[in-house]
Specification:
366 residues; alpha/beta; Rossmann fold; 3 domains; 10 helices; disordered N terminus; vWFA_dom_sf; VWA domain-containing protein
C-alpha cells in the first residue's frame, strides 16, 4: 500500500474565546502599562475598540466593564467620582498573565523545590533505585522490585523476603532559596521614548507567580531603587512607576543584603534589572549625584558591595537593558568582582533570560 498525502482547503483557526476573556487579556496588558490605573486602561481600551473594532453589537465595552464588576475584578473608587480600582483578584490575574506571556504555561508542582546534586533521604522520589540501607524508611521501599529480587534469589516457590532483596526508591534532597529582585525606577527607564519599566514589572510579577506555583518553599523579596531604595509588596508591582530619580545602586544592594541576612536558608541570590550606571550615593542627609560618565566615587562603592556579596556567597545576576559599551564595561567589572552573571538583553527577551537564570541558578548553586 503506497503512502501519500491528502490535501484539503485550509481553514484558519477561529477565536472561540468568549468576548469577556478576549477583552480581559487586553485589559490586563493595558492596566500594567498604566501602572494600575483602571480608568485610564479602560479609556485606552475604548480608543482601541473605536479604531480596531475589537467588540461587536452583541458584546460591547460597557458589557465588559459591568462583567469586571460582577466577577470581582473592579471595585468602585470612593476617591474618584465614577472611578474604579483594581481588586486583589485583578492583581493576581495580572501576575498570571505575565507568567503566561513571559514563561509560558507551567503546571503547578506538588511541594515545589529545587534539586541538589545529592541524594539520600529527601522529600521527592527519583526514578533511581538502590539497595536497602539501615535508616531507610518503609515508605521508600519499592515492593515490586523487592519481590522480584526475592523470586530471583530464592525461587518462585520461596516467599522469603530478606534484607538483601530489598530495593528502595532513591530520593533527592531539596533546598529552599531566597531571592531578592531589584528593579531600577530611575528616570532613564522611560527616557528616549522607550518604556523599559513595563517589561521590568512584568518580569517581577511573572517571577513571583512562578515561585508561588512551582517553588512555594522559596522566598522572593522585591525592592526598587532610585535616589533611595525601599521594599515593595508583590501585589504592588502593577502600580510601580518611575520617578525623577538618579540610580543609587549602592542603596539597593545594601537593602538587599539586609533582607537576605534575615533569611535562614544558606542559598541566597540577587537579581538586578537596570538600564544604566550607578549615579548616586547618599552621604548623611545629602545626595551625591553625577550623571556624566562613570563617577569613580560612586562606582568604587558599588564594586565594594559586589565584593561583599561575593564574600557572603550571594551571587548577583545583572540584567542590563542597555547597549552602551561603557555601561557594559561597568557591568562586566561589577560581575567579575562579584563572580556573578550578567545578561545584556533587549526588552523583548528580558523575561526569558530571568527565567533561564533562575532555573540554572537552582541547578548550579543549590
Amino acid at each position: 500500500m503506497a503512502l501519500g498525502y491528502r490535501f484539503s482547503d485550509f481553514i484558519p483557526p477561529q477565536d472561540d474565546k468568549p468576548g469577556f476573556e478576549s477583552l480581559l487579556e487586553i485589559f490586563l496588558q493595558l492596566v500594567t502599562i498604566t501602572s494600575g490605573d483602571a480608568n485610564e486602561a479602560l479609556n485606552w481600551l475604548s480608543s482601541l475598540d473605536k479604531q480596531y473594532k475589537i467588540t461587536n453589537d452583541e458584546y460591547g465595552i460597557g458589557d465588559f466593564i459591568e462583567d469586571l464588576r460582577k466577577k470581582g475584578y473592579l471595585d468602585d473608587d470612593p476617591e474618584r467620582k465614577g472611578g474604579l480600582s483594581l481588586t486583589a483578584k485583578s492583581e493576581q490575574s495580572i501576575r498570571k498573565s505575565a507568567l503566561e506571556e513571559i514563561f509560558g504555561k507551567l503546571k503547578k508542582g506538588g511541594k515545589g523545590s529545587h534539586a541538589t546534586p545529592h541524594t539520600g533521604t529527601g522529600d521527592e522520589a527519583s526514578t533511581d533505585r538502590r539497595e536497602y540501607r539501615f535508616g531507610d524508611s518503609i515508605e521508600q521501599i519499592s515492593m515490586t522490585d523487592s519481590l522480584r529480587n526475592a523470586q530471583i534469589n530464592h525461587g518462585i516457590g520461596d516467599l522469603r523476603l530478606t534484607e538483601q532483596d530489598l530495593e528502595v526508591n532513591e530520593t533527592e534532597h531539596k533546598t529552599q532559596a531566597a531571592t531578592v529582585l531589584m528593579i531600577d525606577i530611575s528616570h532613564s527607564m522611560i527616557l528616549y521614548g522607550e518604556d523599559r519599566i513595563t517589561p521590568a514589572k512584568k518580569v517581577g510579577m511573572a517571577l513571583a507567580e512562578l515561585i508561588r506555583q512551582k517553588y512555594p518553599k522559596d522566598t522572593l523579596d522585591v525592592i526598587v531603587f532610585g535616589n533611595d531604595a525601599w521594599q515593595i509588596e508583590v501585589k504592588d508591582l502593577p502600580y510601580l512607576e518611575v520617578g525623577p530619580y538618579h540610580t543609587n545602586t549602592v542603596a539597593g544592594l545594601e537593602l538587599a543584603l539586609d533582607i537576605l541576612r534575615k533569611r535562614k536558608t544558606p542559598n541566597k541570590q540577587i537579581f538586578m534589572i537596570t538600564d544604566g550606571k550607578p549615579t548616586c550615593l547618599k552621604e548623611g542627609l545629602r545626595y551625591y549625584k553625577n550623571s556624566f560618565g562613570l563617577d569613580r566615587k560612586v562606582v568604587n562603592k558599588t564594586l565594594n558591595l559586589a565584593a561583599q556579596c561575593r564574600r557572603l556567597k550571594i551571587p548577583v545576576t545583572t540584567f542590563m537593558i542597555a547597549s552602551d559599551p561603557y555601561l557594559q564595561a561597568f557591568v562586566d567589572e561589577f560581575t567579575k568582582v562579584n563572580n556573578g552573571q550578567a545578561y545584556y538583553s533587549s526588552l523583548k527577551g528580558l523575561g526569558h533570560l530571568v527565567f533561564r537564570d533562575y532555573r540554572q541558578n537552582r541547578k548550579k548553586n543549590f
